Amino acid sequence: MKETLLNKFSEIFGGTEGAKVYFAPGRVNLIGEHTDYNGGHVFPCALTIGTFGVARKREDQVLRFYSMNFEELGVLESSVEGLKPEKEAEWTNYPKGVIWAFQEKGYSVGCGMDLLLFGNIPNGSGLSSSASVEVLTGHILRDFYGFDVSNQDLALIGQYSENKFNGVNCGIMDQFAIAMGKKDHAIFLDTADLSYEYAPLKLENAKIVIGCTNKKRGLGDSKYNERRSECEAALASLQKVVDIKSLGELTQEQFETYQSAISDEVKVRRAKHAVLENQRTIQAVDALNRNDIALFGKLMNDSHVSLSKDYEVTGIELDTMVESAWKQDGVIGSRMTGAGFGGCTVSIVEEDKVDRFMEEVGREYKEKIGYAASFYVVEVGDGPVIL
Q1: CA gap 90, 88 in Å, rounded
Q2: Active-site residue identified among 36, 60, 114, 174
Q3: Read out DSSP for 331-387?
Q4: Can you say whether the dihedral through the CA atoms of 315, 316, 322, 326 is positive or negative?
Q5: Among 40, 151, 307, 382, which residue's CB has the most CB atoms within a 10 Å radius?
Q6: Largest Cα span, the chain
């Protein structure tokens, strides 16, 4: 892979002197969806698939970007001066946003770069290809300039760039999981204060299978921001009767006590999901630590039902795939993962049933939806590295 990337870099930008190869993973969230901007817990892990980058510092201020995933766009140029989001800049708004964010935080990015990217995360799938590019760019800038920033800082800068430069009100989970990834572990993260612990993923005789619906969706133009504002409105109503800073502070019993303060029935359901999903995540990690994989799977299933009925972020593609998964022999648990509205499912499947699972779910999905799904058996990997 490294040699292929360097050869392509040489072809596009001329030679490889001074160029280095970097990698940042994608991520999948096992449980805890749409809780990260509600002050709740999440349980993601980094993957061994992700984004590769070959980068070289320039003497001038020119930024030249090329993606092997979007070769038809050719080389897209910009400058480190006066960075702003532009529709015609396409995917380069993500690395540009991170350079801008470093500048906003007081770090001097004085020179341009040549950057070639190749991602083996399905684009628009919900495995955080954008956050992977953001963390990768921050990792490159840290290496170029010797910036004194931790991996956690890379996550926060990536989130800041997506919020403020690209206009998507994402929480911290994606960037944090990618920057802080640890092989064979998931991250139990409290998004309210960024306290976290690593939990070993002891899935004996079972595999994590990602099912990609192949329905493309972009967070910015989805209902993601709408869900976030609905939760903020529900929180504001609850704060009139109970002293909380986020929905994640409430237990199920407390929510049931105070929910009448929310006058709008839709916002009640949105808040209910945020509160109960947080509790499910806490219970799921406890179950995993006790090696109760069956309970972990049941909580995954319950999570999907809540995301479908109360939060309404699934849609026919994700529901079809998950409901088919639930019927298959050897499935411990299955749910949508990511923001929803298309994207991916995550399933835990007994190892000797994986091939049959992919065949059967794929067949049912194509019959109902009309086009094929893609499947990936994934391994849990580390955070960003220099290759």
Answers
A1: 5
A2: 174
A3: EEEEEEESS-SSSEEEEEEEGGGHHHHHHHHHHHHHHHHSS--EEEEE-B--S-EE-
A4: positive
A5: 40
A6: 66
Give the integer Cα–Cα distance in Å for 365 and 43: 27
Q: Which residues have a Cβ under 8 Å from the Cβ of 99 and sit 6 or more positions away?
A: 63, 80, 83, 109, 137, 141
Locate 309 and state its tokens. Answer: 């009925």
Closest CA to 249 of 26, 30, 38, 76: 38
* Cα–Cα distance measured from residue 248 to residue 236, given in angstroms and rounded to the nearest whole number: 13
Cβ atoms of 280 and 305 closer than 8 Å: no
Measured from the Cβ of residue 252, the count of other Cβ atoms closer than 10 Å reads 13
What is the DSSP secondary-structure string of 301-328?
A: HHHHHHHHHTS----HHHHHHHHHHHHS
Sheet holding 195-200, edge to edge: 41-42, 185-190, 195-200
Entry pTM? 0.90
First-to-final CA distance of the chain? 10
Q: Walk along the chain (387 residues) and give the pLDDT tens digit of each residue.
A: 999 999 999 999 999 999 999 999 999 999 999 999 999 999 999 999 999 999 999 999 999 999 999 999 999 999 999 999 998 999 999 999 999 999 999 999 989 999 999 999 876 666 768 899 999 999 999 999 999 999 999 999 999 999 999 988 788 999 999 999 999 999 999 999 999 999 988 888 999 999 999 986 655 456 888 999 999 999 999 999 999 999 999 999 999 999 999 999 999 999 999 999 999 999 999 999 999 999 999 999 999 999 999 999 999 999 999 999 999 999 999 999 988 888 899 999 999 999 999 999 999 999 999 999 999 999 999 999 999
Tell me whether residue 174 is one of the annotated catalytic residues.
yes
Pairing of strands 206-212, 185-190: unpaired
Which whole-number Å values give the CA distances from 310 to 46, 267, 271, 313, in the listed order? 28, 9, 9, 9
Residues in the chain, total: 387
- CA triple 174-91-362, angle to 5 deg: 65
Residue in the block written with tokens 């640890």:
182
Q: Identify which of 41, 8, 50, 76 has the alpha carbon closest to the alpha carbon of residue 378.
A: 50
Amino acid letter at 185? H
